[in-house]
Amino acid sequence: MQKTTGAMRPWYKEPWALGLFSGPAIVVVAGAITLWLAVVSDDGMVSDDYYKQGKEINMELRRDEAAAKLALTAQVLISPDMRAVRIHTTSQATLPDTLQLRLFHPAREEQDQLVMLKATAPGQYQGTLKPANANHWYLRLEDTANQWRIQGEWRPLESYSVLLGTPKLEAVEP
């Protein structure tokens, strides 16, 4: 026989009800937050014109080949405060008085920079950077006519100097 010691409580005031309904309630809230993040955030890594960019790769390879023919190399020296850049180049041809240095952030396009470099002496260039906080950059040195380019990677925590050179291009069989 069961004894009742008072009035029965409604089911929603029982401890088991809170435990039973808290799991699904947490999942609904987490799902709503995930949906909000998916709608609000921008995926900057996906390009709308990926096909056009793919076709332009062959044109870009010609620029690498032109730099290889010039035997072009460059040592990029960046100041520790990331405000100044100096470049020492070697080449079989005379380079123009103005070059472009592009710094590409691996994931955030809004942090990319274009630095115009002015010749200070034969084979030496100087420019000004906008300080940016990143642990990894892709560098591209090119002429303003887009005839050649040399590229490399820079990790500021490892060194303030980068050597850019032309990669060895291999013939690809069709």
Quick overview of this protein structure:
With 174 residues, this protein is α+β, with helices and mostly antiparallel strands.
Task: Please give the structural blueprint.
Elements: H1 15-40, H2 50-69, E1 73-78, E2 84-90, E3 98-104, E4 113-121, E5 124-128, E6 137-143, E7 149-154, E8 161-165
Antiparallel strand pairs: 1-2, 1-8, 2-5, 3-4, 3-6, 4-5, 6-7
How would you characterize this protein structure?
The chain is of the alpha+beta class and 174 residues long. The protein has two domains: 13-40; 61-165, Immunoglobulins (Immunoglobulin-like), CATH 2.60.40.10. It is 26% helix and 30% strand. It has two helices and eight strands; from the N terminus they run H-H-E-E-E-E-E-E-E-E. The chain has an eight-stranded antiparallel beta sheet. A hairpin with a 5-residue loop joins strand 6 and strand 7 (149-154). The protein is elongated, with a radius of gyration of 29 Å. The termini are far apart. Mean pLDDT is 84; it is low at 169-174. It comes from Craterilacuibacter sinensis. Pfam families: FixH.
